[in-house]
Design brief:
The complex is a heterodimer of chains A (116) and B (114). With 116 residues, chain A is mostly beta strands. Chain A is built from no helices and eleven strands. In chain A, strands 2, 4, 5, 6, 9, 10 and 11 form a seven-stranded mixed β-sheet that branches. Chain B contains no helices and twelve strands. Chain B has strands spanning 3-6, 10-14, 19-21, 23-26, 32-38, 44-50, 56-58, 64-68, 73-78, 87-95, 101-104, 108-113. In chain B, strands 2, 5, 6, 10, 11 and 12 form a six-stranded mixed β-sheet that branches. In chain B, a hairpin with a 5-residue loop joins strand 7 (56-58) and strand 8. The mean pLDDT of chain B is 91. Classes of the chains: A mainly beta (116), B mainly beta (114). Chains A and B meet through strand 5, strand 6 and strand 10 of A and strand 5, strand 6, strand 10 and strand 11 of B.
């Protein structure tokens, strides 16, 4: 298992509500990425944070936002939840710097979000 | 724009026979390519990665992949399948086109028959 942890493991919300998911990076990693994995599909890239700034984003609307903290942990916030937001949300950490680009990402176990 | 196409949604092999999972990619920059495996109710695990060094990449559990730029392919192979290899496999491309992005393929489900 990786050293990436996510909380909570499961969450149930209703449409229109807001949710915050949390992720702790593996030790020594400074970059965090978030993914949405719908049932039976591959993970979809939401965004990546490096040095507390977003440095890449997939095709997700602005109601998906994030933060990275000085200790490299991260939050994913989703506002105005929709039924289609029901999915497994994965956090991945990696190290970026020097000649190491696009280094491998280590994934957490995910948070299962259900929107009713 | 980046894209990843896994050419087979399902592959079924017998134990002890070779495995071939096919992946084509498109990228405007020099990408890094990865294969990840996801066992049922378990997290994603890195099998191997290509980052512009050797084109033949060896990974864990006997898997390897060859980067072929002319064919824009990164197929995953294993000489002899084991029952424990049954899982979902994802081909992944990362590059900086338009900001950093990582794109996963749709996945290939590998079935291994006894």
């Amino acid at each position: 298992e990786t050293g990436v942890t996510q909380s909570p493991t499961h969450l149930i919300k209703t449409r229109g509500q807001q949710v915050t998911l949390r992720c702790s990076s593996q030790s020594g990693h400074n970059t965090v990425s978030w993914y949405q994995q719908a049932l039976g599909q591959g993970p979809q890239f939401i965004f990546q944070y490096y040095r507390e700034e977003e440095n890449g984003r997939g095709n997700f609307p602005p109601r998906f936002s994030g933060l990275q903290f000085p200790n490299y942990s991260s939050e994913l916030n989703v506002n105005a939840l929709e039924l289609d937001d029901s999915a497994l949300y994965l956090c991945a950490s990696s190290f970026s710097g020097g000649s190491l680009r696009y280094n491998e990402q280590f994934f957490g176990p995910g948070t299962r979000l259900t929107v009713l | 724009a980046q894209s990843v196409t896994q050419l087979d949604s399902h592959v079924s092999v017998s134990e002890g026979t070779p495995v071939l999972l096919r992946c084509n990619y498109s990228s405007s920059y020099s990408p890094s390519l990865f294969w990840y495996v996801q066992h049922p109710n378990k997290g994603l695990q890195l099998l191997l990665k290509y980052t512009s060094a050797a084109t033949l990449v060896k990974g864990i559990n006997g898997f390897e992949a060859e980067f072929k730029k002319s064919e824009t392919s990164f197929h995953l192979t294993k000489p002899s399948a084991h029952m424990s290899d049954a899982a979902e496999y994802f081909c992944v491309v990362s590059d900086i086109g338009g900001g950093f992005k990582t794109i996963f393929g749709a996945g290939t489900r590998l079935f291994v028959k006894a």
